[in-house]
Structures are given as C-alpha cells and as structure tokens.
Amino acid sequence: MNPRRGDIWMLDFSAGHAGAEQQGFRPGIIVQCDEGNLALGARTTILVPLTTQGRPFSFYVPVPAGPDTGLKAVSWANCTQVFTVDKVRLKARLGSAPAPVLAAVGRALAATLDLTSGR
Asked: Is the N or C terminus of the chain more exposed, i.e. has fewer CB atoms within 10 Å?
C-alpha cells in the first residue's frame, strides 16, 4: 500500500482514540511527502482527517464532493488534527484532492503549526 500526497483514503480510527480525537471510519487527506510515503520500509503516513461538520475557522479547508475526490458530501479538512498513522489504518483509496485544495491544506497546516512566525 503506497499512498501519495493528496490522496484521499478511508481510514479506520476505531481503535486507540481518546477524548476529542477522530474515531470510527472516516476519510483523510495524505499530507506527507511522497518521499516519506514511498520510502522502503515506511510503515506510517501523515494525514489530515475529513469531517462533514465544517467550522468557520481558517484551519478547516473545504473539500468538494464528486468522482475525483470520491467523497459523497462536501467535507472539511480539519487541519487542527494531524495524525501519523500506520498504513494498516488505510482501508480504501477514494480519490485525490484537487491541487488548489491541497495548497489550501498546506497553508492551513502552516498556520496551525505557526510555521510562518519565526518563533
């Protein structure tokens, strides 16, 4: 299983969650670089989970529904919950995020992690 950056996968979060963490089966966007995803022996990947419950925050990025994304409803990339997961949690590739959405997710992650402040 070799996910690529921008892929949208259905994931199994049913085991090992706590409190406000994501749970159950839900889609997520792979945000890890392909060098990390495809490295020999790489068993994990980094992703942002999707939710159908949008919030009016800059950390939530809308992702359109449709055949390209594989989503049945407009969803939101929740960039406040970045996960490193074992690839065994990846159950099915649904599609991929359009380039503008992936770029917006990158900006939201940079803001969430305060990468632009220099602190």
From this structure: C
